[in-house]
Amino acid sequence: MRKKYRKSPSLSTELKGPPHSMPGEALSISPSVKSSVMVKQRTSPSLIHSNNLHYGKCEKMVEVILGAQQEYLVYEGVSMSDYNYVVGRLEESGYRKTWNRLTYFPISERLMVSSPSALHDSILGALMGRLGAILSTIPVPSDTVIYRTMQARSVSVGSVRAVPDSTVMMCTRGGRVADPIWLMECAFTQSDRDVMQKLNSYVQEIPSLLVVGKLVIKQGQRYRSPGSKASAAPQLRSSELMTQRQWADRLGDEFEQVISDGHTWLSLSSVEFHVWTRQAGNSKIELSDTDGDGYALGTLYPTVNLDDINHAFQRGLELIKQEVLMVLESVNADRALFDCAAAWSPPSPVESASLRSALEYGACATAYERYADWRSNLKKKPYNTTAGHSRKSRRLASKPPTFAPL
After folding, report:
1. How far apart are CA 73 and CA 37, in angstroms?
2. Which pTM value belongs to this model?
3. What is the C-alpha to C-alpha distance for residues 173 and 177, in angstroms, rounded to an integer?
């Protein structure tokens, strides 16, 4: 007898309704991150906290994730079996070549799908590059301790399976053991609330963490594609796709408000850093403490004020040095080597000019990505047949990809 599967609930990705829309509609996540979109998966109560596999729902999720680049989606009621099935399907379909990153919380059965942008990748990339250069100056043999700074490195611990935007790993025993000690996330396409949920899971589940932080990029207005409306960006619509260099020449020096052919491709309101460090005597970082020395706030735009962030990063580097000294003690390192490491003092970790340059590049590149994505899809359905539909509403209308047999 053929096995029957529960019919998968419909998914909505069309932007509509106020923040209090009914479940299943696309919601604006947060007033402070207006570009974000939530898609809630309708599920019956029987699906919650289960390990049942819901084939139809999983196939629809795979179709969406493998489709056009997602800015941000959230699925509720996803069982562990659902998650494992989706991940297997994505890997089977060459998912590692796509944009999207997944974060899954087994307890709440919540799956987040987000896409990195050039804007946040460039800023965090500059920051991690500087940290990596500083960590390489700690006078310790590479077969004892080494550090790896990386972006989009998967972490699977306890109640979270995630791909943090940036990670610093401390590797010991000749690199055979690696522990996350520094994690950064970005609230741009993701909501601030969901980023804080991730950070809280990290500090609860990863005892080795010394520093966590978030980069919060707020937009002045939510980006909307010109779609197929003839009156929107008419010159760009009728001309050939520009290269990124041509796009930059057209814009000039503007990066805060990227407007071309009367259409807003990016509108920046502010860019902030929030950083938490583990305090002496504590076994973990306290995210609820925003008044003491364990928390720092700094701005990169519209004004540059990163002094407190610089001090917080220096405290984090001092914490890392203490971890190094404990490792040296555990392996009975030579006293001269120990004293040399103890005398090491970290330089200023925050280079404001470098971060500002990364912001300007990332803003222009993100605006270009949006333009290029829109322009390259103009001749595809439904742009060439149905007026008013955005790329988000097109994702579920496309023909599902063909999968290899399991």
Report:
1. 6
2. 0.75
3. 6
In three-state secondary structure terms, 353 is helix
pLDDT digits (tens, 9 = 90+) for 2-52: 444 343 333 333 333 333 222 222 322 222 222 333 333 333 333 334 468
What are the tokens at 103?
Answer: 């974060």
272-to-121, 192, 360 alpha-carbon distances in Å? 15, 12, 14
- Pairing, β 166-172 against β 177-187: antiparallel
Query: Of 381, 403, 405, which Cα lies nearest the Cα of 393?
Result: 381
Q: Indicate the pairing of strand 160-162 with strand 166-172.
A: unpaired
CB 221 within 8 A of CB 28: no
Q: Bin 371: left if φ > 0, else alpha if -120 < ψ < 50, else beta.
A: alpha
Cα dist from 370 to 125, 174, 350, whole Å: 21, 43, 30
Whether omega for the bond prior to residue 31 falls within 30 degrees of 0, making it cis, is no
Structure tokens at 176: 């055979």
Dihedral angle of Cα 154, 155, 156, 158, to the nearest 10 degrees: -160
Alpha-carbon dihedral 141, 144, 147, 148, rounded to 10 degrees: 110
Q: How far apart are the first and last CA of the chain?
A: 20
Retrieve residue 359's tokens.
């912001």
CA-wise closest residue to 349 among 384, 378, 394, 312: 312
Burial class (CB in 10 A: 0-12, 13-18, 19+), 399: exposed
Mean pLDDT of the 305-311 span: 97
Structure tokens at 100: 């999207």
